[in-house]
Known about the structure:
Layout: H1 2-23, H2 34-41, H3 43-60, H4 68-76, H5 79-84, H6 89-102, E1 106-110, E2 115-119, E3 128-133, H7 137-144, E4 150-154, E5 169-170, H8 173-186, H9 205-215, E6 230-231, E7 236-237, E8 242-245, H10 261-264, E9 271-274, H11 276-285, H12 292-313, E10 317-324, H13 336-345, E11 349-350, E12 356-358, H14 371-394, E13 405-411, H15 414-424, E14 429-432, E15 464-469, E16 477-483, E17 498-499, E18 502-503, E19 507-511, H16 523-543, E20 548-554, H17 557-566, E21 574-580, E22 591-597, E23 601-604, E24 610-612
Parallel strand pairs: 1-4, 10-11, 10-12, 10-13, 13-14, 16-19, 16-20, 20-21
Antiparallel strand pairs: 1-2, 2-3, 4-5, 6-7, 8-9, 15-19, 17-18, 21-22, 22-23, 23-24
Amino acid sequence: MEAFLTNSKRLLNEFLENFLRRRFTPPLRLQSDFLNRMFTDCAFCKITISCVLLHYILNMTQPVASMGDLENTVSEADSNAEIIRGISDGELALALRGILRRGNPVVLIADKQRVAVASQREQNAEWRFEASGDFGDQSRAVVEGAMKNFKWLEVDSLETGLDAAASATVYRKGDVSRWTERRDILTGFKRPKAQDRGRTGEISADTRKRVGAEAGWHCQFEGCGENLWLDANTDTLGNFSYFAHIIASSVDGPRGHAKLSGRLFDTAENVMLLCDKCHRLIDRVSPDEYSVDTLNGMRAANVEQVASLFRSLRFPSSDMIVVGGNILNQSVVFDQRRAEEAMRAAKLRPAGGKPFWFAYNGNEMGDGSSPHFWETQFDQWARMDIPALRARLTGATYGGAQAEVVSVFPLHLMSVLVLAGHLIGEARSVQVFQFERNSVGDNTQGDQWAWPKDAKRPDPSKYSVVVHREPTNGETEALLLVSLTDRVPRGELPAEFYEDGAWKMPVVEVVVPTPSRSVIGHPYDLELVGKAFDDALQSLQEKWRVSRIHCVPIAPTAACIRLGQKLQSRHQSRIAFYERARTTDGTRGQFKPTIEIASSYVKNVATDREVPLT
């Protein structure tokens, strides 16, 4: 009983798959373990399916009048159509059993790849095709079980084979075996003998590697996609692939061509990676149904689909820019590995190589109130940093190749960060990371550079713009305060800004309900604060039309980069930036001007030295 069930499962699986292939476009496929589940999990299914299959097989062996839909289709269809659309080895075996039961003369007409069954329904009647397809082990077993009832004829073309049917000879196993070997070599199911290789269109190892890689080692036939490194039925690893020519390597092969076969046999674009079933389908079952144009279209679409799937697995490449330097008594420490982990957590792929450092001040302490510090920075910017950053952003550093995203890691004075943001701009995709001081080696991906996993999306109204005083009497200068990490203390502002409780010029302030060092804690924060900067600059430049802005920021490093980026779109005014002055007694000093950024230059306020930005 078990042997019968095993054979029944095999036959039913083949029948159902071929039925789905022939009745639906694109062809449907059975789930690989469908019949396994039915034959192992349900005793009733075992008996029912086996009985249905047995009934089908018995019907196929009855006289033609009771063979059902398949037999009627064959009897009424045009003979040429039956040649074009072949059937599988199993289906052909079933059809041969039905034809055999009639007792009429039968001739097996073979071209270079397949066999068509021709018969006479009545004595002296015309020969007509009953079926054609893959003459494999199952079909051959049926024929060789009753050889005296069959004749054999080899022709160049099935279309003209009927005219010569009367000249067919007796069926001889030796003749058929030789034809089978030639057929298998022509269709790529068997490798030629060693002495014949190199003269029969062998596909080289390099071409096989390329075709396999382009297909992702899955079947390229439209709608199939079978994994060719894994047997779906046995869950066994191995190489179950076939390399099939679109234009055959031989003129006599499927879709062979007098001139192109010899030229394209080792061209990757002329080779498809297929599973056994699909290989048989295009080369032995229905080679005429699958033209060169059809298969070329299938292959091209598959290659693009596979490439697209593999591209989707890759994060966008990102170039790493560190705006970092020593600040007062704190030496800059940058861990590239942790920064790269933060990039991966943000679904970015480090482009490789070392990060680009902007405004790195080496062993010098970064005192924002020191004239010497700024003069050294201007020397470095003019000589190296600004030209090198421009080249990095445009791809000139790598021969014109640009990374898809720029990842910015800010660790510097606020004035320097704003300048870097201005140079980086918004024309390209930019990912700004915020250093989190309170996250110290917590073993999460990216540690101090990654956004907290439990961070809540901020409310859209978190950042607002407050107007403290509007311009009067044609004032041309205004003050921009950024109070994010802490509130800008009024008493530490220069007297020309604020004195005796009164503002001395027009003032706009970007604020949050609760300033803190962790105010930027979610990627959406950068979008919202950028919108607030836009609104503030619009009031200052487009509404009030001031020619010079004084900016005092107390903000996280990432927010300073965003402020600099926003100077791109509507940067018409000169903007002077302020840092807190250093004192010797530990008290907080007043805010002093450091640099002034214009559309085409950056100026050292203390010396009036200008460095071009373009």
